[in-house]
Structures are given as C-alpha cells and as structure tokens.
Specification:
The complex is a heterodimer of chains A (303) and B (281). By secondary structure, chain A is of the alpha/beta class. In chain A, 36% of the residues lie in helices and 29% in strands. In chain A, helix 3 packs across helix 4 and helix 4 packs across helix 5. Classes of the chains: A alpha/beta (303), B mainly alpha (281).
Chain lengths: 303, 281
C-alpha cells in the first residue's frame, strides 16, 4: 500500500446470493489525516463496505488493506475506532461498564474510560444503564467507544443519527477537531450538509459503486456566471465573442456563461458598452446536493 | 487474553439472568432433593406405594454426593443449557458481537474468553447445590436426632467434578445452539425440546424397542446418568419420575466420561468454526 493511504480497497465486492450485489468492485483510497466523507443514499452499500473494512463480513471478491493490515486483523483493529450503524451495547450494563468491557478486550487502561466519557459529555450519566439512554446518548457512547483506543483511524457510520440539532452541530465540530488533530476519519453519511461541513474529500457511492470522488470543489466543478440581460440575443452574441468566455448557453430566459468568475467585471463592462442592459450577473456553482443527485440518479434513469 | 477473560467474567457477573438461573437451579435442586424427599420420607414407607420414597440414610450428609448428583444430568443440564445459549445467543440479539469484534482481539480469542468465563461460571452452579445440600442434610440429621456423618472427601470432589462436567456439556450444547440460531429464544426452545422430547421419549421407548438402545447409549442423558451412577449416585428418586426420568441403558463410567468430553469438543469446535467463518451483520 502507498504510504500516504491508510485505507485502500481494490475491486471490493460483496454479493448475497445471485440477485443482490451490495458492493460492486469498489476501489477507494483514504489518505492519512483526512476526513473522508462516504456519501450515498440509503441502501447504496456504505455500511456493507464499512463492515468489510472492519472484518465483520467477508468480501465475495477483491481486497482491502486498513492501516497496512487485512480487515479484521488484530494488528489493524488495535489502531481503529469504529461506530457501525446503531451503537450496540449491553443493555444491562451502565455506559461506564460497557466501556470497561471493551477496554479490557482491547487492553486499554481503565483511566482512559473517564477521559472518553468526558470527551463526549457523558460523565454524569456514565453510571446509568445503557438501556435507559436516549438515542443521542447511545450515539455519544458509541463515539466514546470508538475513541477508547485513541485510534489512528476512526470509522464512523452515521454518527449524528438520532441527535438533536445542537448535538449534531457539536458532533460535526468534534469530528472536524479529530481531523485537525491528525487522525484519519472515514465518515459515512447520507446527510449532504454534514459531509459538506466536515469532510476534506468525498466519495459518492451508488448501487455499490463509487460514482464520484474528490474534494468538495472538485465535485462541484468550476463556477460559471449567470447573466440576465436585454436584449438576450445581442447579449449572447457579445458574450460569445469575448475572449474569457468558453461557452454560452441560454437557460430559463437567462444566459449561463462558462468563464473564470474573476473576469465578471470585464464581461459586464463589455456588455454595457455594447448597449446591453444587464439586470443580473452572478457567480453560480452546483451545490453538493445537485452533484449528488446527478451522480446518484444518472445511472438509475438508464436502468 | 487475560483482559478478554476479565471482560467476559464482568459480563457474566453483571448479567441478572446468571443469578436468576443460579437461584432457580439451587432452589429447585434443594426442593426436590431434600424438601420433597424429606416430606415423602416422613409421610411414607420406603419401598411402598407407586412412587419412590427415600430412606433417611439417603438424606443424611454422608450420602450427599450420590444423593445430589442425580439432579445434574437433566435438571441442572437444562439450566446450564440456558446459560450457554445466553452466553453467545444474546450477543446476536443485542448486536454486541460486532461491537466486540471491532476491538483488538480476534474472534477466536473472544470465543475462548467467553468459554473460560462460562466454565468458571458453572463452578458456583455445582458448588452452590452441594453447599446448600450439606446444610439441608445436616438440618435433617439434627431434626431426626441422628449422628450426621461426613461424606468422604474424595466422593464429594468426584461428584462435584462430575456435576460440573455434565453442566459443561449442556452449556456447550447451548453455546452451539445459540450460535446456530443466532439468538436465544429458538435455541432455548430447541434445546429443551431435545432434552425433553427427543432424549426423554426415545429413552423411554428403548426398553420396548431394542433397536433404539444403541442410539440411547450415546445420548447426553444416558452418559450423564451413567457417570453419576458410577460415582455412587442414586439414579432413583427424581431420576425415575418426571421429565428427567431415565431407567437405562447405562454405560460404563469410562465410556460416559469419553462421550461427554467428546460432546464438549464437538459442540465447541462447531461453534468456533461458525463464529470464525460467518459474517456478523
């Protein structure tokens, strides 16, 4: 594996019987120290992929390396913290005792339990039974469990699930801080805003395949200019003749101009000098939601 | 490994069902072995009537190992079966297997730790019955005004070991059933069905249908009763009546020991294989 990647999959595939292809030849790489967003609609294969990376399920074909080890190998697991799907703990134990069980299995010193409980603000309720926790508290205990080993790599599957607005905001800040502290985070989510706010790079998965990958800027593509002007035909001719303009397209009574947004002032001046009345000129860029829908629906139309 | 064992012991200790099973098993064992038996003795004549009436000697401390061992092959076994099922079956129900499997140890280490904790957890199940049995038998001796002789220590140790081994076989069966069904309800249901219906009925018919006898000789019930009988246990009493009844065929003590240990090995190898190979969803 390349030294810059902490996680790498090659043609990873999971098939259930003949009919269900949950993950389809997935190839992805997560760089050291980045917060990688694994974005996809429900049922896209995110959780199945994460389970394969953690050794919980066996791939049908393909392979993966996580921190240089095969998925599920104790050497790798010792450096990974994970929260997969809904947090699963022993309902008859307190939050603290649940962490104690995990700490003993992992060889983590017990004082670390109080540190992670404090980190997720559960110290005061740590002695209560897990069964009495709200969904948000269960989620926070799940994150505490993931942090217990002070891991290099965190794999978090929908960590804000069930949290209220304030809790979600706190969790996002927290994940961001994990990334800033040098940890690598693989964050699986179907929430665009979450991924947009938190992640350095994003992989979009649909039907078990990676259909897009890049930084937020790369995925959203180049910005363009939206021009609303009269008369439209004259404006289109003037724009088409300008050097910075690569392409002009009429759209909903306005013009979509492919050009470097920093040339907007010059374009405006050229239009005015040509006798065109410009009522609107603004920079426009696809939102992540638009990109996501485009990527995740493009294949479905043809299917 | 020590950390994993310590984690599993913590789980076993904090699980309420462990204590409920222990309390029920010891209470039932005392009720049938001493309370009912003593009332029966006080009200009836030994050797008369349709049921078995114990003699006073059987209820005294020096007969303790044999008197109590007869309760392990069936009644104790069913409690151990449930404990075995809960050890792994409930992990599927709560989804905690995936939480544990993403910690540092490998699957087989977790499995081994669970087995060590379960084996340790069965010790009080055997000890508690003998401890309370001692108190009960001394109480009967005192009430009857007879001198309470002490049971031979070696007999007591062998009875304890045999009791623990029988519980361990049933617990291993429970572990395998819990893993096969990935849950608790079906596993306990199938386990009790097997103990009561399959082994119970086929054993009962073995007297009449000679073809069944070789099969019955490999049943848990036959080998467990044979083991305790070889140690001097009275397999009359509770063992001749009710769902745990067994009237033979008995096998030699050595064969019983080998078959029971063989069952443990088969159940645990199957369980380990399933746990290691299967996806955890």
């Amino acid at each position: 594996m390349d030294g810059g990647f902490v996680l790498e999959t090659r043609e990873l595939t999971k098939r259930y019987g003949e009919r269900i292809l949950a993950v389809d030849h997935l190839t992805m790489r997560v760089r050291r120290g980045e917060v990688y967003g694994f974005l996809g609609p429900n049922g896209a294969g995110k959780t199945t992929t994460l389970r394969m990376l953690l050794g919980l399920i066996r791939p049908s074909s393909g392979d993966a390396l996580v921190l240089g080890a095969a998925p599920g190998a104790p050497t790798g697991l010792a450096r990974i913290g994970a929260l997969v799907e809904t947090p699963a703990f022993y309902p008859f134990l307190s939050g603290r005792d649940n962490l104690r069980v995990l700490a003993r299995h992992s060889g983590v010193p017990e004082p670390r339990i109080e540190a992670v409980l404090a980190e997720v603000e559960l110290s005061a309720r740590g002695g209560d039974r897990f069964a009495s926790y709200s969904l948000g508290m269960k989620q926070r205990l799940g994150v505490a469990a993931a942090l217990l080993k002070d891991p290099e790599l965190l794999i978090l599957d929908e960590p804000t699930n069930g949290m209220d607005t304030a809790g979600m905001a706190e969790m996002r800040t927290f994940i961001r801080s994990l990334g800033a502290s040098g940890r690598t985070v693989l964050l699986s989510s179907h929430l665009m805003g979450e991924v947009e706010q938190v992640c350095d790079r994003i992989g979009v998965i649909r039907g078990g395949r990676l259909v897009g990958e890049g930084t937020l800027d790369e995925l959203r593509g180049r910005a363009s200019l939206r021009v609303r002007a009269e008369p439209v035909a004259l404006a289109e001719r003037v724009l088409a003749a300008l050097a910075p303009v690569e392409e002009v397209a009429a759209l909903d009574g306005s013009l979509l101009v492919t050009a470097d947004p920093t040339t907007a002032a010059g374009i405006n001046r050229a239009l005015v000098e040509a006798g065109v009345a410009v009522s609107e000129l603004r920079q426009e860029r696809a939102s992540l939601e638009q990109v996501f829908l485009e990527l995740t629906q493009a294949g479905e139309e043809g299917e | 490994m020590r950390g994993s064992i310590s984690a599993e012991l913590l789980l076993l200790r904090k699980r309420r069902s462990t204590w409920i099973l222990l309390a029920l098993w010891t209470a039932l064992a005392m009720f049938f072995s001493y309370v009912i038996a003593y009332i029966d003795y006080r009200n009836g004549d030994p050797g008369e009537g349709p049921g078995y009436t114990p003699t006073l000697e059987e209820l005294l401390p020096d007969q303790l190992p044999g008197h109590l061992s007869g309760g392990f092959p069936f009644f104790g076994g069913v409690f151990a079966l449930m404990l075995g099922v809960l050890t792994l079956g409930s992990e599927y129900g709560w989804g905690t297997l995936r939480t544990i499997f993403v910690q540092r140890p490998g699957r087989l280490q977790v499995f081994a730790a669970k087995l060590v904790a379960l084996a340790a957890g069965l010790v009080p199940f055997a000890l508690a019955v003998f401890a309370l049995g001692t108190v009960s038998s001394y109480a009967i001796a005192w009430n009857e005004g007879v001198a309470p002789g002490a049971p031979p220590l070696w007999d007591l140790v062998r009875a304890l070991a045999a009791g623990w081994l029988i519980l361990a076989v049933w617990a291993a069966f429970g572990v395998a059933l819990g893993l096969l069904s990935r849950g608790t309800a079906l596993a306990i249901g199938v386990g009790i069905l097997y103990a009561l219906v399959i082994e119970g009925l086929i054993s009962a018919f073995a007297d009449q249908i000679g073809l069944l006898e070789p099969l019955v000789q490999f049943f848990l019930r036959a080998n467990a009763y044979s083991l305790v009988e070889g140690l001097g246990a009275t397999t009359t009493g509770a063992a001749t009546e009710g769902p745990g009844a067994f009237s033979g065929p008995f096998v030699g003590g050595a064969q019983a020991l080998i078959v029971l240990v063989g069952y443990i090995a088969v159940f645990l190898l199957l369980s380990g294989f399933l746990l290691r190979r299967r996806d955890v969803t």
